[in-house]
Amino acid sequence: MKALLIDDEQSNLDNLRILLTIYCPQLEVCGTALDTRLATSLLYSHKPDLVFLDIQMPGQNGFDWLRGLSSYRFEVIFVTAYDQYAIQALRFAAIDYLLKPVVIGELQAAVDRAHRQYLLKEQNQLLQNLMDFLKDGAKPAEQRIALATAKETRFVRTSEIIRCESSNNYTTFHLTDGLSLLVCKPIYMYDELLEPYGFVRCHQSHLVNKAFIKSWKKEYGDFLTLADGSEVPISRAKKEQLKKIF
Which stretches of the chain are DSSP H helices? Predict the structure, then answer.
């Protein structure tokens, strides 16, 4: 989970970051903000899953900042020195409400609750992905698959995948936006899954999207040249199969 910390005192931000680093390893602090203007900027650039939000801040308090957002998908843990805000915090459906100075046990419990909610959202997204797949008339190019990396689960359209490359029990997905995602699953698990969407296995270690193939080079062996400039080898075992496909 990515966490954004918002507090008007730098010492509070530093202290909370240290506590989260030591006691909440399921979190990665993606940014800190001393005011809501910077917080808004970081919100859209980092897209955090969880926000630790101070309530009483000069200029705009935490409640007013939340009211000003058109929408938000993150969970909120309010952190404040004033306990009279508790009822209002609950009305915002916060995951939790922590009083300063922060107690380690209460912090861990609040983060655990946020993490369970985060995992539930991911499961709901996976279920929605399945339901979209089962809809009548769904076009293959519009389908998405869930790619679980070390830090997150990305939902990627099959039309955005240029190629997949195997490395032992890992598979790297190369996408149209230039990103590469390393997934802890062997490539054969995606072979049959992606075949209906125009993917061909040209080599034991390579699976390519036919839509991005530019040429078949036969100089110094057989290679497929792809739209991103990469060259992928064609194995002898796959050569005749590829000829039939093309």
Answer: 10-23, 36-46, 62-68, 86-91, 104-134, 188-194, 236-245
Cα 40–43–49 angle (5° rounding)?
145
Chain Cα centroid distance, residue 231? 28
The predicted structure's pLDDT at residue 86 = 66
Q: Which residues pair with 215 in a beta bridge?
A: 225
Distance in angstroms (rounded) separating the CA atoms of residues 125 and 136:
19
Q: Which residues contact 217 (CB under 8 A, 6 or more apart)?
A: 223, 224, 225, 231
Task: State both tokens at 29.
Answer: 């602090």
- Token pair recorded at residue 68: 């000003």
Instruction: Kindly give, in sequence order, each residue whose CB lies less than 8 Å from that of residue 177, ignoring residues fewer than 6 positions away.
Output: 160
Distances (CA, A) of 173 to 57, 148, 200, 224: 44, 11, 14, 17
- Give the pLDDT confidence score for residue 220 in this predicted structure: 79
Q: How confident is the model at residue 12 (pLDDT cuts 50, 70, 90)?
A: very high
**Closest CA relative to residue 76, chosen from 49, 106, 116, 45:** 49
Q: pLDDT tens, 21-39?
A: 999 998 999 999 999 999 9
What is the tens place of the pLDDT at every residue in 162-200? 999 998 889 999 999 999 999 988 898 888 888 888 899
**Domains along the sequence of the chain with CATH:** 2-122 (3.40.50.2300), 140-245 (2.40.50.1020)
Nearest to 43 by CA among 23, 24, 16, 70: 70
**Would the pTM count as exceeding 0.85?**
no
